[in-house]
Amino acid sequence: MADANLLSAVTLAALLLHASGAPVEDTPTDMPAGEPSGEEQAGPSNLLSVSPVWHAVLGATKRHQKEFEDEFQHELKYHFLENYKVSSLPAGCPLSNFSKEACLHRLAHGLRIYTVLLKHVEKEYPGNLICSVVKYYSDLLINLSKDKMRNPEQVTALTSSQEAQLLGGLDHLDAFQRKMTAHSILRQLHHFLVDSKRAITKRENTKARMADRLLAPISFYNQKFKDEIIQKHL
């Protein structure tokens, strides 16, 4: 069953990524110019920032803008959704003055919240493919994040009352506002994921550079010692 679920999610992701006619590997992850993405950097494969899960989930959320523009044609611009931000959306991880551990917790907790809010999106747009892909890969990202935490037990699922609180106020909106809110949730989710990936990449790269600086003198003296041994035997 797990293999079937994985195949289904991967198929949905491929459908979304290919919908615009672009191959999966060419789909950008919305990183700004000059900002290296995790996939482009060489490094240990156990780094969270280079996990292929990011490519899959960001490829899906990036597709949302085209879906919005196709639905409303020229009636509404994408930035119109700025008027419908949901107040309960989670805060992302700042690029500075925040530890990697804190960033991982914010990512996991934020994805829990977005997973609940996606229920509103699915209510307005039943069978939405983006929701199906994002929910699957969000679970994977949460688990990957917990694997990197010192205190993963602090990541807990939201209670039923917390879920009800998140969704409660959305049912009282009119039909147009409910649709705009659903689109706003997907838009903000994409930004949350992009910012989270960038912040985690920065922290993992900083840690790697510090480790390289610490190991450099050791490597130098090891090589020097080897050279001395070789010279003695010449």
From TrEMBL:
Region (Disordered): 24-44
Main location: secreted
GO molecular function: cytokine activity; growth factor activity; interleukin-6 receptor binding
GO cellular-component term (any): extracellular space
Compartment annotation: Secreted
Record keyword Signal present: yes
Top-level division of the source organism's lineage: Eukaryota
This protein's UniProt keywords: Acute phase, Cytokine, Disulfide bond, Growth factor, Secreted, Signal
Record's signal peptide: 1-21
Family note: Belongs to the IL-6 superfamily.
This protein's name: Interleukin-6
Natural source organism: Cyclopterus lumpus (Lumpsucker)
